[in-house]
Design goal:
single chain, Uridine Diphospho-n-acetylenolpyruvylglucosamine Reductase, domain 3, binds flavin-adenine dinucleotide, 4 domains, five-stranded antiparallel sheet
Length: 465
């Protein structure tokens, strides 16, 4: 039945005279679906070559009552790109042109399917960078990052995707093109409607073009791993260097013990310089005028902080290769799923000063559910974004999964944080959205969805607008 629905949709699409490529069920089933195994379940993908083709295709889908699932790089981690038989995947892969880099004004105009890395490389030719960075940079697209309001490594300094976006073009569910490609920071001309599409996970339209704000690029960097007694000590280290005008903090990632220990084991990393029972390890990267001066300031700073903060080990990378190995420990976090394929993952944000309390209380709540569960904890410490992976969850009941969810999310909203920091809601965090999200915001979001997509054809079953 499912194959019939996909084949029938494919046949109908082939009769349309639109500037687009098509991939049918036989071909799609042989391709890698990205981060979620069900992304290609719909079986049919259209790849429009122009925004006009997106618009015409969306109009046709609206008239035929065909639901649409937009997809970019398919690196999303919450099932936002899952498609079902009868639904049409619209991919932005053929909308991948960097149309302009305005170096003097520090902006780029790009089509939605441009990858983050492609934009970073193009901007680097002008001494600029994107001001936002993610480990999935090689595959994640600008359109996908807008749609999930991606965060990443530099959010503590530059904000999240929302703060790097100056303009947006999007195709609305009725096929109309919303074009607001302003290249200015200041727009005070009524509600700034481009923000509707940021974080909407494809439920309100297909983002086709984006104006991205660019930042200065500093290449002279020093990278260190530092053993810390708690998150507060890590934040104090970050604060120390943020107050030094000669250096810029380029990354501050904290890995709690179980994460660091297992990452070091998997990647064959020698952690002999660290005291055995160190609670957490901070990965800190600084940039400055020259590598020598940056390393000097780094080492001097750590020496000053050593005793007051109770640091338990530190190592400054002596080569680019060594720095890459430090980053590998943090960025290749999928090692967790090699060790624990059924681990449950969460992505929360909290005011940074609350992190230690939260981690202690969360662990106590989790132990009360069942001491067999343990939590890998790691994340972008300077903006309070924690990732958690809960282990020993193979074959657990639905009730147990909800108990674990409650152990992780309890108190997060009350502490002025969010149950989803940077990955979105998608299909997998729907229950959390209903249970731990803000009810007034939910109601307003539903009203907006009903106004823009009255027939519910845009990415149904995901963010429950
Ligand atoms: C190893 C790894 C590390 C990661 N690290 C981070 C991190 O540090 N920070 C972070 O924020 N995220 C991170 N992510 C998550 C992921 O990279 C982001 O969610 C990314 O923003 C998604 O981009 P994409 O192009 O892959 O979108 P997809 O996965 O294709 O889509 C994501 C959602 O956006 C919608 N969508 C995609 N394109 C469009 C469009 N043009 N218009 C409308 N809707 C669209 C889809 O329907 C879906 O709901 C990581 C992922 C991996 C695999």
């Amino acid at each position: 039945m499912a194959e019939d629905a996909a084949a029938a949709l494919f046949d109908r699409l082939k009769t349309l005279d639109l500037e687009m490529s098509l991939i049918g069920p036989d071909d799609l089933s042989t391709r890698a679906p990205g981060e979620h195994p069900l992304n290609f379940q719909g079986g049919v993908m259209a790849l429009p070559h122009t925004v006009e083709a997106v618009s015409d295709l969306v109009r046709w889908c609206a008239s035929e009552g065909i639901a649409i699932v937009p997809q970019g790089g398919r690196t999303g981690l919450v099932g936002g790109g899952i498609s079902r038989p009868g639904e049409l995947i619209i991919s932005t892969a053929k909308l991948a042109t960097i149309e302009a880099i305005h170096a003097a004004e520090r902006t780029a105009v790009v089509q939605a399917g441009v990858t983050l890395q492609a934009l970073q490389e193009a901007a680097a030719e002008h001494g600029l960078t994107t001001g936002i960075d993610l480990p999935s940079r090689g595959t994640a697209t600008i359109g996908g990052m807008v749609s999930t309001n991606a965060g990443g490594i530099l959010a503590f300094r530059n904000g999240v995707m929302r703060h790097q976006v100056l303009g947006i073009e999007a195709v609305l569910p009725n096929g109309e093109i919303f074009s607001d490609l302003t290249r200015v920071v200041k727009v005070s001309a009524g509600p700034d409607l481009k923000h509707l599409f940021i974080g909407a996970e494809g439920a309100l339209g297909i983002v086709t073009r984006v104006v991205v704000k660019l930042e200065s690029r500093r290449t002279e960097r020093a990278t260190a791993l530092i053993g810390v007694p708690n998150a507060q000590a890590a934040l104090d280290i970050v604060g120390h260097f943020q107050a030094r005008p000669e250096v810029l903090v380029e990354g501050a990632e904290l890995m709690w013990r179980q994460f660091f220990r297992d990452a070091a084991g998997i990647f064959g990393f020698d952690a002999g310089w660290l005291e055995e029972e160190t609670p957490a390890v901070l990965l800190l990267e600084l940039s400055g005028e020259s590598i020598e001066r940056t390393m000097e300031l780094f080492e001097a700073g750590l020496e000053t902080l050593w005793e007051p903060l109770g640091l338990t080990g530190g190592i400054v990378a002596q080569s680019l290769d060594q720095a890459r190995k430090f980053w590998q420990l943090r960025e290749e976090s999928e090692f967790i799923y090699r060790l624990h394929p059924a681990a449950l993952s969460y992505d929360i944000s909290l005011p940074p000063s609350y992190l230690d309390t939260y981690v202690a209380e969360m662990r106590a709540r989790l132990a009360a559910v069942d001491p067999a569960h343990s939590a890998y904890v790691y994340g972008h410490i300077a903006d309070g974004n924690l990732h958690l992976s809960i282990t020993n969850t193979a074959n657990i009941s639905a009730e147990r999964a909800l108990e674990i969810e409650a152990a992780v999310y309890s108190g997060v909203r009350e502490a002025a944080g969010s149950f989803s920091a940077e990955h979105g809601v998608g299909q997998e965090k729907r229950h959390a959205y209903e249970t731990f999200g803000n009810p007034v915001k939910r109601l307003l979001a539903r009203q907006i969805k009903a106004a823009l997509d009255p027939n519910g054809l845009f990415n149904p079953g995901k963010v429950p607008f």
